[in-house]
From TrEMBL:
GO MF, one example: DNA-binding transcription factor activity, RNA polymerase II-specific
SMART domains according to UniProt: GAL4
Top-level division of the source organism's lineage: Eukaryota
Keywords carried by this UniProt record: DNA-binding, Metal-binding, Nucleus, Transcription, Transcription regulation, Zinc
Residue span(s) of domain Zn(2)-C6 fungal-type: 27-55
Protein known as: Zn(2)-C6 fungal-type domain-containing protein
Keyword Nucleus on entry: yes
Length: 413
């Protein structure tokens, strides 16, 4: 009897082990489907790469859920996502955040209840922050500086009192910037992805700080990185189709367009008194809305078509289809030129004096960004390099105008 029982157990044991292997809860999606043990390498496992398979990555540890509106979350002194006591030098890991929670940090427009279509970008950032210290530094900086802004929306504490949140956020930002420089010195696939994700967060950080000139610099550099790494297919000098050099890179241009497409409710300052001390009865923005109520709507329409165009470029597979897309690109650039001409005509009709309205400057900023994105896409070459440089200078000029306007009247309502 003693010899039979072990043999019986030995026959049963392999079945139990095989059953365990079918219930893998970790590892990449490809290995889980194949029901094999994954080495869990990041960003792609070596078991897939070594066998010539496509590694489909890992499930996100972050979940989607509906969160309360910002005003309700903050009403009655509710706790923020980051406790102030944890910011003061002790927070080194990104708090566990829902996708919706983190998405609202991308833009200051969410302080007014605006919704951003950036869940995919938020998940990508949070996923990268688990393993990438530079991304983690950037995320911690954004969370701290945004909390500082929410506590002191007029910016007084950040300038005069230098709160611990602000100091911590700036310190983390400096670490992330140093990391970006390191990544760009040897841009492999993972370093390139990290650099573009960091650029994405830096744009949000500078918006929180009201530094739109620096924001413009990040946009220019980030889009340049995308072009250098060929994040999308493009046409070469002899109209040959060049495939994307790096797959699955963050599409920074799409993220930027989403940010600027979100509803803008920035409140313009009241009209300044004239030389006689008389305050105009009507703010010029009202005149703009009366003469051309659809100016922003038209620009958002062009932005939506641009996103559609970029999506088609990402999946172009033949020279013929790429050449057809060039006509779409030309139409979009013509539409942007026509929109700008209409804006100039409207402002001429209104005939307002003084500095340009902040809401108009924001539209101009978005207009230039769309121009730059399109010029960089599909057939960028030396022929349009001079035009692109001109647009870069224009972006810096408009960004400076916006920055001065924000500093003069930084009030959310």
């Amino acid at each position: 009897m003693s010899n039979v029982q072990p043999e019986h157990d030995a026959k049963r044991r392999p079945k139990r082990n095989r059953g365990c292997r079918t219930k893998l809860k970790t590892g990449c999606a490809t290995c889980r489907i194949r029901r094999v043990k994954c080495d869990e390498g990041r960003p792609f496992c070596q078991k897939c790469i070594g066998t010539g398979r496509t590694c489909d990555g890992y499930d996100s540890p972050f979940r989607f859920c509906n969160t309360q509106p910002v005003d309700k979350a903050r009403a009655g002194g509710g706790k923020s996502l980051i406790e102030s006591k944890s910011i003061r030098g002790t927070l080194t890991e990104v708090p566990v955040l829902d996708i919706d929670d983190f998405t609202r940090y991308f833009s200051t427009k969410t302080l007014l209840g605006a919704k951003l279509d950036c869940d995919a970008e938020a998940e990508q950032v949070l996923q990268a922050s688990l393993t990438d210290p530079h991304v983690r530094n950037a995320v911690l900086s954004l969370l701290a500086l945004r909390e500082d802004l929410e506590n002191f929306p007029d910016g007084r504490a950040s300038v005069a009192q230098k709160t611990s949140n602000y100091d911590y956020g700036v310190g983390q930002y400096c670490l992330a910037l140093a990391g970006l420089a390191s990544n760009l010195s040897s841009p492999g696939s993972s370093e390139a992805k990290s650099a573009l994700i960091c650029c994405q967060i830096f744009i949000s950080i500078e918006q929180v700080r009201g530094n739109y000139t620096s924001l413009a610099q990040h946009i220019i550099r980030g889009l340049g990185i995308m072009h250098e790494l060929r994040a999308r297919p493009s046409l070469g000098a002899l109209n040959q189709l060049l495939p994307a050099h790096h797959e699955q890179l963050p599409l920074l241009d799409v993220f930027i367009i989403k940010l600027f497409s979100a509803p803008c409710k920035f409140k313009d300052p009241p009209p300044a008194p004239d030389a006689k001390g008389t305050t105009p009865s009507e703010c010029p923005i009202s005149g703009l809305r009366t003469v051309a109520p659809d100016m922003r709507k038209e620009l958002i329409g062009i932005a939506a078509l641009t996103l559609e165009f970029l999506g088609k470029v990402s999946y172009v597979e033949s020279v013929d289809s790429a050449l057809r897309l060039l006509s779409d690109k030309a139409e979009l650039l013509d539409a942007l030129n026509a929109w700008l001409a209409d804006l100039e005509l409207v402002q001429k009709k209104i005939g307002s004096s003084g500095p340009e309205l902040l809401s108009v400057s924001f539209m101009r900023l978005f207009h230039v960004i769309l121009n730059i994105v399109l010029l960089r896409t599909l057939d960028y070459s030396r022929d349009n390099h001079a035009e692109l440089l001109t647009e870069h200078e224009q972006l810096k000029d408009v960004a400076n105008t916006v920055e001065e306007g924000v500093k003069a009247y930084r009030t959310f309502s």
